[in-house]
Amino acid sequence: MIQQLLGFLSYYIPEVMLVVLMTSLLVAEASVKDEHGNRDKIYAYALGFLGLTLIPLFQNSGKAPVHVFFNAVTIDQFSTLVKIIMVIGTMGSILLSRTSKDIYTNLKSEFVILAVGVLIGGMLLASANNMLTMYLGIEILSILSYVMATLKRDESTSAEAGLKYILYGGLTAGIALFGMSHIYGALGSIQFVDVVDKVGSLQGIQLYIVMASFVLFFAGLGYKISAFPFHMWSPDVYQGAPIPVTTFFSIVPKLAGIAALIRVSMVFFTNNTILMNSWVGLILVVAAMTMTVGNVTAIGQNSVKRMLAFSSIGHVGLMILGVAVLNEAGIRAIIFYGIVYMFMTFCAFYITSYLNDQYGTDNYDVFRGLIYKNPLMALIMVGTLLSLAGIPPFSGFVAKFNIFNIVIEKKYYGIAIVAAINSVISLYYYVRLAKVIIFGKADSNEEVVGFTRFNQTVILALFVPVVLLGIFWDKVFTLAGSAAIFIK
Amino acid sequence: MVSLSSYLIISMILFVTGITVMIGRKSLVAILLGVELVMNAAALNFVAYSRYMTDNLDGHVFSLFIIVIAAAEAAVGLAIVIRFFQIKETIHVDEATQLRN
Asked: Which of A178, A190, A220, A389 is the right S-S partner for A427, CB 3.0 to 4.6 Å?
């Protein structure tokens, strides 16, 4: 028994390391005096430790997929790859929380502790293999996120963001849980391994119970990835929360939610045609609405954070199209999209963050004439915006192209047209910001203090993948190609 | 003899009550109470299904976890409500209107 558990633990080293990191950070937070040098050490320690967890993760990605802890958790290539992306996303957000003044001035290392906690929840969610671990993952992710949204304690916007987050979150988590309980009743097991067989032979009343319950269940995951109609919290929370937190929210919880959505879709909806058709229909409608609502509402925004929030809703709409096709090509496209979207988000939010520190607002106006103040950063921002819109030389184009490719292969022409129209709409508001950057007249020629040499190097390093992935995308694609879901 | 359907009816009533409270009431504390009601409805379902429909204990374990998580969520929720109250001096949900289009 003990030996078996230890054997399981050998697959679970990254998560254990993160728990150790979180606890040690709590101790350090309580015991180390807050002098400037000390705080830097804590940040460096956290970043180094997170970097170390990548080693066992890469080792896991080479192993054969298994279910560990009595089928509660699965370690397969897909979940490991998602975890690697999430760890890198967390590291980037932590670095931003150190260099941006948004929360660094009045906090010690709470951001790091909470971010690592959310990461643990995300990892659990990405490799959840029964309903209990999936629910635990969602809740660990959510409860810590609520606290993160409120990190700027003294500002009413931040408190309001946290409030809206927890009210929507509690509602949707409750609804999803209610759906889960009926799925358990109809199928008689919470283990995905057992469920796979039972789904195939579902009939009559049980089938309808499961169908209805899955609509409820979708609320929980749809809320995490901010899909229509559960997207209402997203712009408010993004705008109210401090920028490093916003950056973090648009990467880690979203990826974890999409990973869980993929696994649920593959487990429950590949064996039963009636269930599959209704689920695909639901996802296609949700995807179309999510894209349209996100992109259309983004047009009228004046806050860059809010605009990026709506644009991220639009991107999620595209990403879940990869779920709707229910095959490995879809998973590959989603993972590639996730990687690319992470780097684009980083570039956009890093630059917005330093401008926000300087001028105290994130209106379009602070970008006015950025090209005269700092040409390099201005060009990177324009490149990122074009990549977000999906203009060819950049990686955003390849990511979007992959999604279109798989959708058209499955002959979902209607949704492909909707997605194409949405790309055009999104181009409008991205180019509008790019126009402000290049053709706007700056009020003054002052230097932006936040663009120190170190920060510029970081931003440049984050921008390199945005360009390179657009050219050498096949390398990453082969990596993502091995990301198979292990069901049984 | 208490049957499965009576449990399901009770949990359905709890669920609908919880949702109604969340939508209808304007006090933040009442809304958090609504969340608890919905979660308890789900927990009751799990236990009932576990007793009548299956031969395993998954549902019982699940309901224990739900109780723990509901407590954690209520703690964080109340902390945020207190912070909101300290800043705005009200717990009326209609006062949370700073962030909007």
From this structure: A389
